[in-house]
Amino acid sequence: MAKAQGAKTRGEPAVSTIHADIPAYVGPPPNADGWKTTVHELDDHRGTYGMMLFILSEGFLFIMLFVAYFYLAQGGWRWLNVKPPRLHYVIPMSVILFSSSGVAYWGEQEVKKLRYGMGRLALALTILMGMGFLALSAFDYKEHLQSVTPQTDAYGSIFYTITTFHVAHLCLGLLMLLYVLVLPKLEPRQWTPYRPYHNAAIYWHFVDFVWLFIVGFLYIAPNIR
Amino acid sequence: MSPAVEQHLTQLWESPHTLWGELTTVDHQKLGKRYLATAFAFLIMGGLEALVMRLQLAGPNRSVVDPETYDQLFTMHGMTMIFWYAQPILSGFSIYLIPLMSGARDLAFPRLNAFTYWTYLFSGLYLYGSTLLFQSPHGGWFAYVPFTDKPYSPGHGMDFYALSLIFLTISATGGAINLIVSIFRLRAPGMTISRMPLFFYSTLTVSISSVLSMPALAAACVFLELDRQWGFHFYDVTHGGIVLLWQQLFWFFGHPWVYIIFLPATGMISMIIPVFTRRPIVGYPYVAVSTVMTGLVGFGVWLHHMFAVGMSTMSMSFFSAASMTISVFSAVQVFAWLATVWKGRPVTTAAFHFAMGFLAVFIIGGLDGIVTAIIPLDWQLHDTYFVVAHLHYVLVGTNMLPVFAGFYYWLPKMTGRMLNETMGKISFWLILVGLNVTFFPMHIVALMGMPRRQWTYADGLGWGSVNLLETVGAFILAFGILLSIINFVVSLRNGERAGRNPWGADTLEWSTSSPPPAYGTVHIPTVVSRNPLWDAHDEEDDPHGERVLDQGRLTLASTPLDANPRYLSRMPEDSIVPLIMAVAMTGIFTALTFKYVWIALAFALACALANGIWLWPRHREPKPGESRQ
Q1: Which residues contact B594 (CB under 8 A, 6 or more apart)?
Q2: Residue from the list B109, B218, B562 with its beta carbon closest to the beta carbon of A50
Q3: Residue B204 vs residue B554, higher pLDDT
């Protein structure tokens, strides 16, 4: 019932969170501050705030790792005479990962329109693409490890630390998406249903965003010097 | 309000008084008090370590402890005080007070709150686990490489260092996120950004600093651990590593951390001084802005810990100037406090004594901070007792004295019992005399050439008598603290009943009974000024009981800037899962210490599963008229 209604109303939040049986807070009469006098929407933004701050912290972790990369490169001890990493795995990996972000976004829009089936499909597709990325990165590692290992020198240490950290965060993102996939269909009157999806998806976008810098700094830049 | 409503709210919010209830609770008051008690226990641990060190240094050529033990003692003392006491105790105040001050029923993420408490406790226990193995960290609290790398520090001591700090960053980042969201979302209607208590500004500033600076510590410690256990080469110069990378990362974290353990304490002082001078604080916006600016500029001063490593004059000048800029913001706050006292009518309670003691010691500590920010002097003073003197003046002065002021001010709210004022004042004077007698001579002995972190020293250098004086001072300080502890314990049983608002204070936590019920206040309060309890206002009237919000475990969420009531936030119930997850996380770090990767992965899986259970939605809307359970 709510589904059909929501599908029609585009633009505004698809599921109205105003429900007769949710208790209301009745504030004081309006004064100069222009307070809202009755409140009966349930808050579903806290998780997004928390996720944003978590991403901020994680983003700084990656900034620190990149800082370490360039700091260690300042002596040029290996960076200049090393054979730059090859790109033939990384380019398809990037294509997969960036398009998976697009798929996740599309799925979120579908869920907003209450098309849960499409949303779940998009979510599953995103997860598969993420796994494809992981598989390709295993091949990339296998090839790369033949020329340099983490124990070879500082370059190997930072290279593998950054990429492994990214893979670990990607796995965390995959777990989040998987979790959203198996979540029971939440009752619209309890939460705006796309909110957990949204929270997982912004983390996924963040992981993809970090990959952009990894490709740029660690893979492409050494090839074009 | 009728007792029935209060009973209903209690039923909604109070955790059962059983062991299970204590382990599963997500109540911010209980967790805040636990933070305070745990951090205080760490203060005592660190203090005892310091006393042993002072006994060792009381005279030349003493050997109370052997050199290796001495190294472990000063490292554990620094780590305990800086990481497990100074910040967590302020978190404890924030966690306890912020929901009460903002009229919310709990923090934004109550289960996260339980989780960060347990991880904080377990990371500390994990660190002290190293003592049981007689392998405590021994590289100083900032653990410079290459000394702390494997070839020079074999054994597990420095692994405990790196892993316990990574563990702690998880707790501290989670706690900071929780406080940021709470401050931005859960303020009472009308508590706009320009009417927040100043304590909110300082907590908000340091929480954001924590979120941004903690990753640097985590990265540095991950590198150290990879170097030590897995043969990586971040800090190994023979394989292209750079030793200074550690210092850069550590101090990029370390200096914001100094403000993280200093600013909330100044926020507490900004709350206490107006109450005991019976007037609003002078220059509220200036104090607020300088608090935020201290946090901001705090990110641009880390190189002043590294003036001696050999850098370009340009970068040293920049960081020297930035460090001195901090003193401008500090001076704004100091003059605002002084003006408040000057214009007000001081009531000289024990808490006020501690606040004033803070001002005096902070000024001395700040001034010798400026001295150490001057590059040529810093080269001379680097790694001498001058630095020890400065950092103790600043930390004891700006963290411990405000914390004691906070205890004397807020413990009546937490326990419902007044403390003994006379004993408090005697304790204050002992602490003040003790800390000056301990730390002031350190300046002198430094100028006489005594380096820091020295196990012992030769006779005939003229350091003996000064060091003896410092040791005497340390025991006076310890005795002062002991007196306050006795005061706290005695008051629990024998103190006078505190009542709602024994100090005639202005902020919302004093509008409820002492100790407050689990739900805080019955009515969601309203705010129209900076001093809600001093300024009576019509908005507070609620004849029909419409602002009680007792229909479920709900609290009011408002807009971040205008505090316009906007949403009802549903709060999670008590859960054992945060504790289970914290235990699993302890398992991860313990396994990693001894390189049991598969066990660590199994614990990580357990963590993920626990987190899944934690977040699984199982809210059920109570039918109208039905009570929960």
Answers
A1: B156
A2: B109
A3: B204
